[in-house]
Amino acid sequence: MRVTLSDLPIRFEDVSVRAGAVTILDRISLDVAPGAPTVLVGPNGCGKTTLIRLGMGILAPSSGRITWGGRFDAPGERRAMVFQRPVMLRRSVRANVIYALEVAGAARPERRARVDELIQRVGLEERAERPARRLSGGEQQRLALARALARNPEILFLDEPTASLDPASTKAVEDIVRSIAASGVKIVMATHDLGQARRLAGDVVFLVRGGVNERAPAEQFFSSPKTPQSAAFVRGDLVI
Questions:
Q1: pTM of structure
Q2: 57 Cα distance to chain centroid
Q3: Domains detected in the chain
């Protein structure tokens, strides 16, 4: 019988990412453990997306090391990611989810059983036969969440999933994210929206110029930030 290994905690040890002469992330040391959502915040260009891609395993560091559950070679089967602008296949909503289940290795009987469950979980039952590319932006993000859940992930990375959505669509996505987190999936999310971070975060990682400026439980971060930069950011001041 195959033993299922956990990818948690994810441990970043002195991790840097460079592109030529530009340092994108600078000597990050950070643990991501099971529990409530970890939310990455910070000014544009601070390295949030790069950190998420490293955690997912689709980007390698220039220096330092990353481990998943203490392993260097974890294959990523227990991780999933939703991008800010997910690509929709030229298929129906249902067919998009079926394809995701196929890629995840689900057997045919399991695909039949789970496709409706996943579509219902993200509230797209009435759109199941609609072409995915004809959905609204918020509906596409919900479909992207359903496809990610097809992997039965232990960790779900979200990169600015509501950045271009209206308030109603944002609430719909946030409600699904809360439900996923409540089911035991570890959420790691990047957002530019401090209100969203307040609503969803269990803990906050504040990045500035490619480094971790502060990491704290959400309530503490917003009520009593410890660094001048994080205090300015919480006030709504520009942080460069």
A1: 0.95
A2: 13
A3: 10-87+152-235 (3.40.50.300)
